[in-house]
Amino acid sequence: MRISKYITTSDGVKLHYLEQGSGQPLVMLPGWTQSAEQFKYQIEGLKENYRCLALDWRGHGESQKVTFGYKIQRLCQDLREWIEVLHLKDVVLMGHSMGASVIWCYWDLLKDSRLSKLILIDEPSVLIKDPIWSQKEVQNYGASFDFETLLKTCHQLKSPQGDVFTSQLIQSMVTREMSVSMKDWIIKCNLKFSREQAAILLFNNCVQDWRDVIPRIKIPTLIVGGRSSVTPWQSQVWIHQQIEGSQLSIFEEEEGGQHFLFIERASKFNE
Q1: How many CB atoms lie within 10 A of CB 200?
Q2: Cα 155 from Cα 239, distance rounded (Å)
Q3: Rounded distance between C-alpha atoms, residue 143 and residue 156, angstroms
Q4: 20 to 30 A Cα–Cα from 191, which one of 46, 62, 184, 242?
């Protein structure tokens, strides 16, 4: 049975997480504005072989709603404290989208402390384009924003139409085959996080640059991307090429190869 649990961080924030199963810890980190609940197919499918744990970032999902700490570095500290409070070791650490950015921050600060393997799902190494980059460099790094577009996106999130704008964003991140009910569920999970704070966190995530960190990863790593994802699939190939001995899996469009591939094709992803 999937159980909801909580810890309190060093700065007094109550974090929610889900747990089920036993064995080696499989720690699952959701993306920007998403929730632990979205890993329900992984928890159900992998609980016989792993101690499955999925975290709600501060302000997200069922975690405490606060007005501070929406920076990748603070989320990394929250992750560190959670792992330490639970005395986890030999962790398989899996991050979707922004969750992978938190993993890169963790590696930069702590290296392989308590970790054994990494799974990185559909996150580029840097999100802001440098105007002097070639088109190939833009694809390789996965950069999808210039500053003007980023600021406009943040303003739209904070506007009275922020919920509608979020719905439109989600629509662009799924395949045409996804059911309306599943899209509505993903949107509902996202809207548990304040749009005001979502804009703050988006900006902070987008101005990070992990290109110097990624090549220093030295533990077994799986990179997963989608051929038709909003994250250019070439950026996932580039990450694979930087991490010695890593494995790469690109889901084709007919395999649910968009940003939420772990939901759209959960059984294939779990394999």
Answers
A1: 19
A2: 31
A3: 20
A4: 46
